[in-house]
Amino acid sequence: MTVPQPERCSSVADALSEPMAGTADHRERWLLVEDRSAWGDHAVRDVLGSELEAAAKARKMRLLLVRRRGEDGVAAARQAFLADLAIGRIARRSIADVSELHALLDAPLEAFGAVSAEPMLLVCTNGRRDACCALRGRALVGALSVGHETRTWECTHLGGHRFAGNLVCLPHGFVYGRVTPADGPRLADAYLRGEIDAALLRGRSTWPEPAQVAEIALRAALGASGVDAVTLRSIDRDGDAASVELDTGGRTHRYELVAGRSEPPRPISCRADKLETPTHWRVVRSDAPSS
Hints:
Helix content: 10-25%
Strand content: 25-35%
Distance between the termini: 50 Å
Number of strands: 14
CATH architecture of the largest domain: 3-Layer(aba) Sandwich
Radius of gyration: 19 Å
Shape: globular
Strand order of the largest sheet: 5-4-3-1-2-7-6-8-9-10
CATH class of the largest domain: Alpha Beta
Oligomer: single chain
Low-confidence stretches: 1-5
Largest sheet: 10 strands, mixed
CATH topology of the largest domain: Glutaredoxin
């Protein structure tokens, strides 16, 4: 007798060709804390406490646990990283106890620790939260570890399980989805050269979702690959409509977008107990050339 296997959320999203553009969570500051314990469903809360989790949420800060591949157990001292994506810098410090972080949530980078622009590559592998992140994420970490071992970190829940494997390039906050082990090293190499591939891009975490969609469309249309090739000039959002202006190469491009529900209903995670119709932004008008 063959036991039927559950249909994974990432397989469903793949089959439906669900768009990824505009699905990166909008956060400008990220706090990463090294942790080598076994991560559960609510890993951040379990390890760092509900008070720190709530404080970070109130500041719209992304709070994650991170670790390098193969490192298990609890270290006497751990590393913490504060990333300011708006300026493309990361500060690093050693902490003896996570309680030290409460007073540092609003600190400028220079007060947090040693500041650098050294890249970090994050891959969600929080399998207890979602099986797709374990299956696809860990394979991606393995591929990245060959040439980018010191830069690659496993991390807890990023959002968007159904787009696993998910890859984040810090300190700029570009988020990729559906990254295979074959794609990962190529994307990492390109990022280290200062280049972005729009094809697998979910969005730039520093920008609101409509601006993420417009940027990806513009990069695809112009073949603009430079990390700093596109800048956000303005965004005006009114309910399910948005107007975005982007600058590139000395020229301003205007995009009009609307938000709508994606049919049919689908599980947005492997553990979902109901089906949902996720919201996606799409371009309805633009003065930029079409791709």
